[in-house]
Amino acid sequence: MEETPRSVGEASTTNFVPAETRPSAKKDAVTMKGCGFANLAWVGVDREELRGRLAMPEYLRLAMRDCIKRKDSTAVPDHLLLLPGGAAAEMAPHAPMVVFINPKSGGRHGPVLKQRLQQLMTDEQVFDLTEVKPHEFVRYGLACLETLAAKGDECARECREKMRIMVAGGDGTVGWVLGCLGELHNDGKSHIPPVGVIPLGTGNDLSRSFSWGGSFPFAWRSAMKRTLHRATLGTVSRLDSWKIVVSMPSGEVVDPPYSLKPTTEETALDQALDADKDVPPKAKSYEGVFYNYFSIGMDAQVAYGFHHLRNEKPYLAQGPVTNKLIYSSYSCTQGWFCTPCVSNPSLRGLRNIMKIHIKKANCSEWEEIHVPKSVRSIVVLNLYNYGSGRHPWGNLRPKYLEKRGFVEAHCDDGLIEIFGLKQGWHASFVMAEIISAKHIAQAAAIRFELRGGDWKNAFLQMDGEPWKQPMKSDYSTFVEIKKVPFQSLMINGE
């Protein structure tokens, strides 16, 4: 049975705030947020009071850490239960919280930020992602609380039900944590922890979309206290996530990002058969989940080149501003802004190698849509923000929406937007919000078919992670995007 996207603005429970009804920040607050002075009413938060709202009892903190270390959610040493308070603790903190921090993000702010967070909370509730992975916390840390709760520990039960998570990192780090929390949905668990963001990345579009700001604050030491306080009070909104399956002829060599995982050959073959195209004797596939965007074309090619340049010369990665300057300079050398009259086929329009089929809302049939001739990059966008807070889809007027059969775009409406960029100059005007991107479609599911010929490779990326995709002229490569059945929960920073 086809899943019906929720109508725009629908919320499944009054405890959640739909994305389109979240209050907008005042202009002066937005101005000060980038400098770490947003919402001055919270400047006077007492440090010890904040710690009391966040810190779990010592026996629970140590039990979680021990279970994660042993990779066994039932391995709770008896001596921990005999600590003061122990299993007889009567009161759980108002807002038990853990923080995941990516020390490689934020222009080397990671280590000192970790120390500051440990001062404001406790050492055991701050997790370094180079030491403890999110899936380990989900499988052994949260499961430890569930084990204790099943034994009658009310404090453990309340901490598990009230748990909130903050992620200090970029959009990729946030997506990693959200993906691991998705395991709880698959296991049929209730009380999924909502996630807030401390922006340490380059674009920080997830952070911007939920009012956590677009950059690491200048006065970061005092800002961290206010950020944690806001995280205890923020309302919770829903975020769509999208599953991507890349199916290709067997034998092709591809170096996918870590967020794409190989699946069985049967899965890939089923995808190809369902498409009713020329099916290779064998096929293989990769699958993953994205929260912000997926793209094919020149922008992904530039991102791929920049990604490898930074890996080869890590001293270039000195922070978000430096990254953006290098990225902009690198894009000028790839033919994105100026394509010679006699050029490599890889610099021409995507319609030479691509077909797009979509399923619209409340429709079970695939429909082929036209690929504009001049488009050299196609972006599938879930969030309102893209490319460091830009809005390429634009604020479309009701008459235009009605004419195109679109609805107002939101990150929790079960639909995803598809738009095109023609070349670097067009993309620059779109990013400057002088014009809107080339609107192509809104869809509840998408299937791209890529076929080689003069093109030997295509370049793809999702949520900032690019890869080179080899193509055959005999058989097609399919990229299918469908909505994940459950939604992620995000804490609003306002």
TrEMBL record:
GO terms for molecular function: kinase activity. Keywords: ATP-binding, Kinase, Nucleotide-binding, Plant defense, Stress response, Transferase. It catalyses: a 1,2-diacyl-sn-glycerol + ATP = a 1,2-diacyl-sn-glycero-3-phosphate + ADP + H(+). It is an enzyme of class 2 (transferase). SMART domains: DAGKa (SM00045), DAGKc (SM00046). PROSITE patterns: DAGK. Residues 92-250 form the DAGKc domain. Its EC number is 2.7.1.107. It comes from the Eukaryota. InterPro entries: ATP-NAD_kinase_N (IPR017438), DGK (IPR037607), Diacylglycerol_kin_accessory (IPR000756), Diacylglycerol_kinase_cat_dom (IPR001206), Diacylglycerol_kinase_pln (IPR016961), NAD/diacylglycerol_kinase_sf (IPR016064). Residues 1-27 are annotated as: Disordered. The keyword Transferase applies. Belongs to the eukaryotic diacylglycerol kinase family. Monomer. This is Diacylglycerol kinase. The lineage of its organism: Eukaryota, Viridiplantae, Streptophyta, Embryophyta, Tracheophyta.
